[in-house]
UniProtKB/TrEMBL annotation:
The keyword Membrane applies. It catalyses: ATP + protein L-histidine = ADP + protein N-phospho-L-histidine. The chain crosses the membrane at residues 20-39, 46-68, 74-91, 98-131, 143-163. Keywords: Kinase, Membrane, Phosphoprotein, Transferase, Transmembrane, Transmembrane helix, Two-component regulatory system. GO terms for cellular component: plasma membrane. Pfam families: HATPase_c (PF02518), HisKA (PF00512). SMART domains: HATPase_c, HisKA. Residues 324-550 form the Histidine kinase domain. This is histidine kinase. It comes from Microbacterium lemovicicum. InterPro entries: HATPase_C_sf, HATPase_dom, His_kinase_dom, HisK_dim/P_dom, HisK_dim/P_sf, PAS, PAS-like_dom_sf, Sig_transdc_His_kin-like_C. Its EC number is 2.7.13.3.
Length: 577
C-alpha cells in the first residue's frame, strides 16, 4: 500500500497492497486451522469457527478479484472491517482465544487510514468482546480480557499509525530531495553538454584535467593537432613534440600535457610539433587552474594549445624580407662609401664641396651600420638548417623508442631495444630521427596486440679473410616485428608513394603509404641502403645500413647515452612497454 495523505487518502498502488495484506491474514488463518485440527478438533466442528474462517477465505477471494483502482479509497475499508467481524465470529463459543488475529486488520487500518477509521475498527472489536463476555457468567477474568484486548490493540494501532505517518513524511522528504537532485543532475548534464559543444567548436586545442591529473575531456582541435585516436582516453599522440624547430624531441617529463597533469602551471610555453604528415607546427601552450565555483570545479585545470604557425611564419617572412633588404642595401652603400672616400682624398677639393661629400659619407656610414644591425638580427631570428655532424645512431634511435613508448603501450605491443655502443655515423640527427620514427611507428602500427618489436643498432661485421675485398663496416639499424607482413610482390613496391599492402588496406589501420618512401630518401641522402624482408602473417624486418663516421670527431662522439647498455641482446635489451 503506498503512502497516503491523511486528508484525501489517495492510494496509488491500492490493488497490490490489498492483496499483500489480505493474503497475509489468510495464510495465518489457514495455519491456525491446521493447528486447531490437531490440538482442539472439537473447535473445528463449531459453526462459528467455520463461518469465520469461511468469511476470511471469501474476503481474500474478493480482495484478489475486485479492481480496487476503480473505486474510491474509502471502499478499501470494507475488507479490514469485515476481517474484524470474521475474527470475532471465530472467537465466539470456542475454548481457544483467536483475539490475536485482530492485530492484522488493526495494523492494516492504522497504517493506511486516518485515526477515525482505526477508532471505528477498535470500537467494533470492543463491542464484540463485550457481547461475548456478557453472555458468559460474570467473572473478573472476562473483564480483564476485555480491558487487555482493547488496550493492547489500541496501543498497537496508535504506534503503527504514528510510525506510518513518520514513514510517509520521510518518504515525501526523500521524494522532494530526489526531485531536487534529479533537477540538479539534469542542469549539470546540460551544462556539461554545453561546455563540450563550445570546446568542440573553438579552433584552440583544450584539454580539461581533474584535480588528480586525470584527463576529463579533450576537444577535437587538440586530437587532430596531435593526431590522437578519436576514442583514446590517454591522448597518446602520434605527432612528436620538439623544443625548437628541427631541435631535440621533448622527454616525456618535459611534455606540456605531462607537466600539466602533474599540477604545474605555465603560460605561453613555446614548443614545436612534427606531425604525422611531415609538417611542422609552432605551438603556444598554457596550463591554468580553474577557479573553484562552489566546489563545482575544485582543483580542475585546463591545458590550452594555440597553433601559432601562421604568426611564426609571418615573423620568419618579415625577418627574411628585412635580411634581404638590408643585404641589398649594403652593395650600393659600399659603392657610395668607396667613391666618397676617394673624392675626400683629393687635397685640391673645394672646402664647400668637401663639406657636402663628408655629409654624404656620414649618412652612408649610418645607413651601413643600420643595414648591418638588421642583417645581424635577421640571422639570429632565422631558423638555420641542421648541420651534418658526428651522430650516435643508438642515441637517436633511443629517442624514437622513448617517444613511441606510449603508443606501443596503448597498442599492447612489447618493444625490445638492443643497442650497441659507439655506432657513430656522419649525418643529420634530425633526419635520422625521422627514419627511426617512421620505421618504429610502422612496426608498432601493423603488429597486433600481444606482439613484439625488436629494435637493434649495431656495427656490421666484416667477413673473416675478406678485409681487403669486402665493404667496410657500417652502422646497422634493424627493426623486426611480428605483425601482419606482406607478400613478396608487395615488398617490391613498398617504397612507392601511397602504396599500401592488401592486408593493410583491409584492416582498420590508418595510413598514407608515404613513410617508407621518406625513409628511403633520407637514408639515400646519408649514403645508406634500406632492405625490407617480409612474410604474410609472420612479420617484417627492415634493415638500414649507413656508413660509419671515420673522422676524428667520431671518437669524441662515441660516448654511449646514459641508461643504455652496450651490446645488449634482444632478451637483455631495453623493454619499453
Amino acid at each position: 500500500m503506498p503512502d497516503t495523505d491523511t486528508s484525501t487518502h489517495p492510494i496509488a498502488t491500492r490493488t497490490t497492497s490489498i492483496w499483500l495484506s489480505q493474503l497475509l491474514l489468510a495464510i495465518v488463518v489457514v495455519v491456525v486451522v491446521l493447528l486447531v485440527q490437531s490440538v482442539s478438533p472439537e473447535t473445528v466442528d463449531l459453526w462459528t469457527f467455520t463461518v469465520g474462517v469461511s468469511l476470511v477465505v471469501v474476503l481474500t477471494g474478493v480482495a484478489l478479484a475486485v479492481p480496487w483502482q476503480r473505486f474510491p479509497p474509502v471502499t478499501v475499508l470494507s475488507i479490514p472491517f469485515l476481517d474484524i467481524l470474521a475474527v470475532g465470529i471465530m472467537t465466539r463459543e470456542t475454548t481457544v482465544d483467536f483475539a490475536f488475529l485482530w492485530v492484522f486488520p488493526v495494523i492494516w487500518i492504522a497504517t493506511y487510514f486516518p485515526l477515525w477509521a482505526t477508532g471505528i475498527g477498535l470500537s467494533g472489536i470492543g463491542v464484540m468482546v463485550l457481547i461475548e463476555e456478557a453472555q458468559r457468567e460474570e467473572n473478573a477474568a472476562g473483564t480483564l480480557r476485555l480491558v487487555v484486548v482493547t488496550l493492547s490493540l489500541t496501543f498497537i494501532a496508535i504506534s503503527t499509525h504514528t510510525a506510518s505517518r513518520q514513514t510517509r513524511a520521510f518518504k515525501r522528504l526523500l521524494r522532494r530531495e530526489a526531485n531536487r537532485l534529479s533537477e540538479t543532475l539534469g542542469r549539470s548534464k546540460r551544462q556539461e553538454r554545453e561546455v563540450s559543444r563550445v570546446l568542440g567548436s573553438v579552433d584552440v586545442g583544450v584539454v580539461r584535467l581533474s584535480a588528480d591529473g586525470d584527463i576529463v575531456e579533450a576537444n577535437l582541435t587538440y586530437r587532430e593537432l596531435y593526431d590522437v585516436a578519436p576514442l583514446d582516453p590517454q591522448l597518446v599522440a602520434r605527432s612528436v613534440e620538439y623544443d625548437d624547430y628541427q631541435g631535440r624531441p621533448l622527454a616525456r617529463a618535459d611534455r606540456p600535457l605531462v607537466r600539466s597533469r602533474a599540477g604545474e602551471q605555465f603560460e605561453d610555453l613555446r614548443t614545436w610539433l612534427f606531425t604525422a604528415d611531415g609538417s611542422w607546427r609552432a605551438l603556444s601552450q598554457t596550463a591554468l587552474r580553474l577557479p573553484d565555483d562552489h566546489d563545482l570545479a575544485a582543483g580542475e585545470s585546463l591545458l590550452v594549445v594555440h597553433d601559432i604557425t601562421p604568426m611564426v611564419s609571418a615573423e620568419r617572412a618579415r625577418d627574411s624580407l628585412a635580411t634581404r633588404v638590408s643585404h641589398e642595401l649594403r652593395n650600393p652603400l659600399t659603392t657610395v662609401l668607396g667613391y666618397s672616400d676617394l673624392v675626400l682624398e683629393d687635397e685640391s677639393l673645394d672646402p664647400k664641396v668637401r663639406e657636402r661629400i663628408e655629409a654624404i659619407n656620414s649618412a652612408a656610414e649610418r645607413m651601413m651600420r643600420l643595414a648591418n644591425q638588421i642583417l645581424q638580427s635577421g640571422r639570429q631570428a632565422r631558423m638555420t638548417e641542421s648541420a651534418v655532424t658526428s651522430t650516435d645512431l643508438a642515441a637517436v634511435v633511443a629517442e624514437s623508442v622513448e617517444s613511441l613508448a606510449p603508443t606501443a603501450l596503448g597498442a599492447g605491443v612489447v618493444v625490445d631495444f638492443a643497442p650497441s655502443e659507439g655506432v657513430i655515423v656522419r649525418g643529420d640527427a634530425f633526419r635520422l630521427r625521422q627514419v627511426g620514427d617512421n620505421l618504429l611507428s610502422n612496426a608498432i602500427k601493423y603488429t597486433p596486440k600481444g606482439g613484439r618489436v625488436l629494435v637493434d643498432v649495431h656495427i656490421s661485421e666484416t667477413p673473416t679473410g675478406q678485409a681487403g675485398t669486402s665493404p667496410p663496416p657500417s652502422a646497422v639499424l634493424r627493426i623486426t616485428d611480428t605483425g601482419i607482413g606482406m607478400e613478396q610482390d608487395e615488398v617490391a613496391r613498398v617504397f612507392e608513394p601511397y602504396f599500401r599492402s592488401a592486408a593493410a588496406e583491409q584492416s582498420t589501420i590508418v595510413g598514407t603509404g608515404l613513410g617508407m618512401g621518406i625513409v628511403q630518401s633520407l637514408v639515400t641522402q646519408h649514403g645508406g641502403t634500406v632492405v625490407v624482408e617480409s612474410s604474410p602473417g609472420r612479420g617484417t624486418t627492415v634493415t638500414v645500413q649507413i656508413p660509419l663516421d671515420d673522422s676524428p670527431a667520431a671518437d669524441e662522439a662515441g660516448a654511449f647515452p646514459p641508461g643504455l647498455g652496450a651490446g645488449a641482446s634482444a632478451e637483455g635489451g631495453r623493454r619499453v612497454s
